[in-house]
Amino acid sequence: SDLAVIGLGYVGLPLAHEATRIGLKVIGLDVNTRVVDGLAAGKSHVDDLSDRDVAGMLAAGFRATTDASLLAEARTIVICVPTPLSDEGGPDLGAVTSAAKSIAAHLRPGTLVVLESTTYPGTTEEVVRPILEESGLVAGEDFHLAFSPERIDPGNPSFGVANTPKVVGGLTERCGELAASFYGKFVQTVVQARGTREAEMAKLLENTYRHVNIALVNEMAIFCQELGVDLWDSIACASTKPFGFQAFYPGPGVGGHCIPIDPNYLSYKVKTLGYPFRFVELAQEINARMPAYVLQRAQELLNDAGLALSRSKVLLLGVTYKADIADQRESPARPVARKLADKGATLTYHDPHVAEWTVNGRSVPRREDLVEALREADLTILVTDHSEYQADLLVEHARLLLDTRGVLRRLPPSGVAAQRTTAQIE
Ligand code: SAJ
Fold first, then answer.
1. Does ligand 1 lie within 6 Å of residue 154's CB atom?
2. Pairing with 148, which of 122, 174, 277, 307 sits 20 to 30 Å away (CA)?
3. Residues 170, 171, 177, 181, CA torsion sign
C-alpha cells in the first residue's frame, strides 16, 4: 500500500480519506476493534466525515484493520494516535511508543515514517527514532523520519486536510523532502520546517498563542464589567485594524482537547530544563477562573431581579466545548454547572448534540423544547453558542439571560437586545 495511517480518529481518518480520494492505496490501523468494525461496515465515528465518505473510501480500496503486520507493505506510515495529558503534566506518549514498536516490528528499508501527534519538541528524535531503530534499520539512511503537526479544526466547514497548509520537518534534509512530496500529493500547500523540532514547536506555538490570547480577553472581560466597557464592542473595533490584530473572544472557559492541553507539553518540557513558562501558567489560571466568574454574574443578575440562586431554575444552553460539535472534552459547562448546583440552583440543560448530561454524578434534566425551556427558567445561561441559539429567539423568550458568548453582540445596535434585562459576560 502507499500509506498506512495508525490511529483512525478525528485526525487519522480525514487524512486517510483525503489520500484515498486522490487514488492512494491506504490501510488504516487502529487498536479499537469497534472503530475497525464500524469502518468496515461503512460507518463514520468522526464528526467531519459522513458514512458516505467512508463508503467511498471502502469502494476506493481503503481497508481498516487491527493487524499491524500489514504495516510491512506500506511505503509511508503516518502516526495519528492521541497524546493525552499525563499525570506529570506532559503528553502521555504510550500510544505513540506502542505505534512505533508496531512499526519497528515490520519496518522495511525505504519506508517514510511521519509522526503527527502533538507533543513536545524532541519527541520524534529522542523517543520515536530509537524505537524504530530497534528494527536494526538506521533513521535517515535505511528509512526516513519526519514530524508534521495535524491542524484539523473540528467542525470547521472552510478548512480540511487538502486546503490547510501542512508543516513538515525531517530528521534530515532528505527526510523532509520525502515527507513534503508525500503530503504534496493531496495537500495544496506544504511548508518545510528546518527539522523535526521546529515542526513540533510550530504546533505548540500556534496553540499556545491561541490559549494565551483567549486568556487575555477573558481577564479583560472581568474588569471591563466594572469599567462599564462593552468589551465585545471594543474587540469589534480593534478588529478593524487590517494588520497585526487577531480577534479572540471572552467566554466561560477554554475547552477542547488541544488548546487547554497542548501548551502544557511545552511548559512540561521546559520545566525539566529548569525554565518556567509563565505565560501558560497565567493563561491556565485565568481561563480556569472563568466558571467562577460566570457564577458571580449569574448571582448578580438574579439578585438584581430579586431572586436567590438557591431557589432559582437555571437553564444551561449548550454543554459541548464549542459551537455545533458534539465533543464535550474539557468543556467549561460542567464546572459552571457544578458551581451553580453547589449553590442550590435547580438545573436543566438544552443541547441538540448531547442526549444526557451528568454533573456531580447526578443526571441533569434535558429540555427538548427550547422556547418552553427559555420561558420556564428564571435564568438562562448560554454557555455554548450552537447555531440554534439565535439572538432574537433568546431575547424574545428568555426571562433573564446571561450570554457568555456574545451571541447578542451580533445584533445590530438597534436590535431588541436593548429592551430586555440581558447581561453579557463582558
Ligand atoms: N475559545 C474562546 N475564545 C476564542 C476562541 C476559542 O473562548 O476566541 C474557546 C472555545 O470556545 C473552545 C476553546 O477555546 O472552548 C478552543 O477553541 P478552538 O476554536 O481553538 O477549538 P479547537 O480546540 O477545536 O481547535 C483548535 C483549532 N482551532 C482553530 O484553529 C480555529 C486549531 O488551533 C487546531 O487545529 C486544533 O485546535 C488542534 O487540533 O490543535
1. yes
2. 277
3. negative
